Amino acid sequence: MKPRSYSGKLLEILSASLKLGLTSFGGPAAHIGYFREEYVHRRKWLNEKEYADLVALCQFLPGPASSQAGMGIGMVRGGLIGGLVSFIGFTLPSVVALTLFAMLIQGMGIGNEGWLHGLKLVAAAVVLHAVLGMGKSFASTKASGSMAAAAAVATLLWQSNLAQVSVIACAAVTGMLILKNEPDDADSPFHVPIGKRTGLFLLSLFAVLLILLPLIANNSTSAGIILYDSFFRSGALVFGGGHVVLPLLEREIVPGFLDHETFLAGYGAAQAVPGPLFTFASYLGMAIAGWKGMLVSTLAIFTPAFLLVGGTLPFWSILRKKESVKRALAGVNAAVVGILLAALYDPIITSSVHQNSDFSFAAILFVLLAFWKLPPWVVVILGAAGGQLFF
User: Which residues cross the membrane (predicted)?
Assistant: First the structure.
């Protein structure tokens, strides 16, 4: 049932994103699976093609792809405010948990905790479910299936910051050249309540901040401005998701703001909480300058994502209807399936499935999710509990 008012719609966005923010363990690939279950299958805010196109757009853009997808869904549902509400709901639990958790466990090892191992196995089940579902829709022909496999191979063998964006760019060109348009629901309404002028303003603001902030920071003695510049550039220039931003942040923060040991202490905490890995910035900001530092670093690292998604969506809804863009999107969607498949193996399977008991427990979780149709948050709880009991 649709909410009767705009405020009701915003509350609905907040409720859905907050639930995902509390239960979405496993990193960006798993988040895409969680989002698909919640927004496409359960709430039906988008259909499969619309969701895949939105994910494809976010893969093109620098920044945290899963957080951008969540912002984009919120914007499609409720405009810029809806995107902001969606961002708050999905990110706030991770920010709060990581800030407090990092303060409590700093210097303690958590890598061998059973419940954390169980959550990694949940991620394996969720991503496998997403790969199979999206593969059936977007990599089911000889050409698209081959492109998905090629994308997976290239992503696994080419370990570089540019690998993912290069694979997607190649897939777009290849799709435009060799794939055929087939009847689908690509022309279904994809209304975004954001005007083109607003989109241009947001893209211009992104460019201005990216250029001016380093200049201002170089001539400023304000720790807040310098910190905001460091985290803004890290969020604006990274392709490939949360794990790739870690070396960028390390170059910006160590040793100028923090020592290496304090930096690494937060990395373990970042793996233990749900939500986007980019909230590692919240830990760093807290360690550097307390609550004010946490607020500055969190806002700075996510600002580029919000500006880019809000700026491109008004034009994306038009571009996706063009025949050449449809073919390019078909190629990108196939590549996204391959990238998810690669992520399923590395880092998810390689970091979690080491013995027969691991595989068995992950298989049980997959059956509960795919065939018993249990909500993902229930599977998360069962995975954590089972991991604590059996591992």
Answer: 80-105, 117-135, 147-179, 199-218, 230-249, 294-316, 328-349, 361-385
